[in-house]
Amino acid sequence: MPATHLGRPVVVPLNRRDDALRLHDVPFKLVPCEVPFFLVHTQAGFPSPAQDDMQEPIDLGAWLVEHPAASYIMRVDGRSMSGAGINDGDMIVVNRAKKPKAGSIVVALVHGDRTLKRLRYVDGRHWLVPEAEGFADILVDEHVEIWGTVVGVARKMT
Question: Is 71 assigned a catalytic role?
Answer without folding.
Answer: no
